[in-house]
Amino acid sequence: MKALRGGFLALLYAVLYAPLVVMVLFSFNSARSTTSFNGFSFRWYENLFSDYALLSVLQNTLLISVLASLVATALGVVAAYGIFRMKAGKLKNAVNTVTNIPLTNPDIITGVSLMLLFTFVGRLLGRTEILGIWTLLLAHVTFDLPYVILNVLPRLVQSDRSQYEAALDLGCTPSKAFWKILFPNMVPGIFTGMVMAFTLSLDDFIISYYTNGHFDILATKLYSAVRKPISPSYYALYTIIFLVILLLLVTVNLLQLRAETKHLRKRKERRTSR
Amino acid sequence: MEKKNIIELKNITVSFDGERILDRLDLTIEDGTFVTLLGRSGCGKTTTLRIIAGFLRPDEGDVFFGDERVNDVPPYRRPVNTIFQRYALFPHLNVFENVAFGLRVRRAPKAEVAGKVREMLRLVNLEGYEKRKIDSLSGGQQQRVAIARALINRPSVLLLDEPLSALDAKLRKDMQVELRRIQRETGITFIFVTHDQEEALSMSDVVVVMNDGRIQQIGSPVDVYNEPKNAFVADFIGESNIIDGVMNRDATVTFAGHTFACVDEGFAHDEPVDVVIRPEDVDVVGPGEGMITGVITQSTFKGDYYELIVEVRGFKWMVQTTDAYAEGQTIGIVLDPDSIHVMHKSEYSGLYGDYSSFSDEMDDPVPDRAAEVEEEGSL
Amino acid sequence: MTARRNRRSLGTVLLNAPYLLWAALFILIPLVIVLYYACTDGDGHFTLSNFSNLKEYGFVMLRSFWYSLAATAICLLVAYPYAYIVCRFRPAGQRFANLFIMLPMWINLLIRTYCLMTLMEGNGLINQFLAFLGFGKLPLLNNTGAVIFGMVYNYLPYMILPIYNVMSRIDPALLEAAEDLGCNAFTRVRRVLLPLSAPGIVSGVIMVFVPSVSTFYISKAMGGSNNFMIGDLIESQIHSQNSNLPVAAALSTVLMVVILVSMFILNRFSSDSEGGSLLV
Prior knowledge:
The complex is a heterotrimer of chains A (274), B (379) and C (280). Chain A has 274 residues and is mainly α. Chain A has two domains: 1-41 and 232-264, no CATH class; 71-230, Orthogonal Bundle (MetI-like fold), CATH 1.10.3720. In chain A, 81% of the residues lie in helices and 0% in strands. The two termini of chain A are 42 Å apart. Chain B folds into two domains: 5-226, P-loop containing nucleotide triphosphate hydrolases (Rossmann fold); 240-362, CATH 2.40.50.140. Chain B has helices at 45-53, 95-105, 110-123, 139-151, 169-186, 197-203, 221-226, 231-236, 369-376; strands spanning 5-16, 19-30, 34-38, 60-65, 68-69, 80-83, 157-161, 189-194, 206-211, 214-219, 241-249, 252-255, 258-261, 271-277, 283-285, 292-301, 306-312, 315-321, 330-334, 341-344. In chain B, a hairpin with a 2-residue loop joins strand 11 and strand 12 (252-255). With 280 residues, chain C is mostly helical. Chain C has one domain (57-269): MetI-like fold. Chain C contains twelve helices and no strands. In chain C, helix 8 crosses helix 9 (185-213).
């Protein structure tokens, strides 16, 4: 039974990681092929850093992700606080439902609908080439927003109401009580919401594909490239991204784990000392 | 009346992560009795219960149900049911379906299910609650559902893992009476785990005092209270002054600078012993009138009695008396032969029974339940 | 008092105004415009011909539905045992097991799928390995199985996470109680674990089905030209020389309806349990 479980997990991880192993391996291939390994080289990494077209696309991607996540965070925090203050009722339910639409709608619908909106507005303005960096940014903010709201809102709902009331009782004005009590409670949610928004923007392909016009980001560039055999430079780029993320996630998780075990050990010590 | 043994644990040893939880434990349980496993958290009482239920296999030793060795019998084939610490009621089922669960698993006919569930709900005074959701019930009601659910399969043994610890004091008292009544009505053997000595004494036919994975004493509540086997039991059950003494010969013991008559026999000549004096057994008299003399260092009014801390030759005694005394007063102490209990020395000698650093807050620590689950739970 | 309350509600309105405006402009109105395009011809006249033109695509729609249903079922069959096994690990083990399930998701779907293709294609590594062992080549790509496998590969973590989250919060004592009351390993799962983890299953199914049924890259990359799905149709109506936005809009409308109906049916399964989906 134990062997069966182990085998199942091993197979699962093997399948999940096989393509990534291919990616890492062939990023070091000395030839252009992505199916036969000819020898080890850093050629594609050197290529990557001299491929200005690719680097400028990378720059575009970072620009859009940073801008979109910042705007979405600012808007989302205000929205979350607004929804929190809203009286329970039909309007609040309606707002919550609308917030969930981009989450539950398939990306292709979100992309197509925004594209149609932009072309429609373009037609009204008499412009045929309206799609570009600005429409892409609007689209990204739109699909980032619900994630920020859904990370911040629970923090507000869970925050202890009596703390806020105690602050008012002790002479704080409502705005002062907000900054002293509610806002600090929101900060972790704001942070995770922003990180989530950033990574979603970084990774998005489908929505960008319908709203970017001729403004290329990594994913759309990759899509136009994958129809022909793609350059291992992309492998090199994503290998770097993969390693950075692996390192980050493992570190964060190890730190969290250490904090947790420390907490547990303290509790145990307190118990045995009694 | 001849009673037969329903459960026998022989030489049971269990370790987690190299830590020995149960150490060569032997325990025999008679059919139809109310047995309580009593001890602090981490003493191995819950582990013993899980061995009997079958959730845990002993590293060494054998478990017998009657004459059958059941080490390899999974929980679902054992004629035993359990009431879990936090009841473990199924949140997706209503009261009726929770109670009916055991019968449904056995695919009992509908009419039988309805009849038996009604009967069980009557037994625990929960008629009319059939359709209620579990989370709409109070703690006491959930407790009753758990009892009904566990009894519907007519187990030969019911295991109860600290079932009252989540209830408030008043409710706990009611449920103690209730459990006792149900045990008498059904005649099922109850094995009850608790850290609360009062609960153990008031409910059980037999109390099993445990510490460090070993059984310290098995006996009736009266025996365990009056005739503790060692300093641990004497201290754990009730309040005790435990004093170093020497057993001169049968029925004569010397301690606190005085030689007393007692009723204990069968010790070696001049054997060093532990002497137990219960605080309520001490007679306080005027200075010079007693067998020994002491000075009161603390006096606390407790409602129906006064609790005194009395220094006798550098050792602090706890004394309970109905008369008022002031701190600093010198008193005499008289001890009847009956109120002196002599024990052999044990590994616990000298660890307990001195009230030098006594304060009320140290009394009866409530165990950290989460921590206990963590340690004793095996999943 | 009323003045103060008015001020408060004015504050709430001001707080909500930007987001409400944004949500209306970029969430609601676009959906209305999809409907508008779907129901008009090139000159803006009302017509239903865009929908009646979809008849020739009926087979593609049916295919999309069945493929994604199959992918969802396979994901469920893999994710459920996974969650069951991992929930019994120590906390550190659980954390890292899930971390390594999520990790591939941080690499763009396009490049992962491309790597998968290079593994499975006619001269790919798997076939090279088979040839090395002396076996013949297997046609791994460009068939139905490949499309479904591609969707399972890409969306499996969306099934695993919600199921794990719900299952890890189930008190192990409940399973012991079931065992105590006579359940063997099988009935324990059927009578206790499955009903209690239903909310996780429902949200996992939604999170896999929705992107599967609307995918437009995986089907083309893994399935060749004979396995087009709705997503591919929509894409070709927009990104081709003779683009036809009204037909794309009509297709999108149909896709939305399919998903809404599926979700409605699914939510019936967990109507009385909370947290049944991502919706808060």
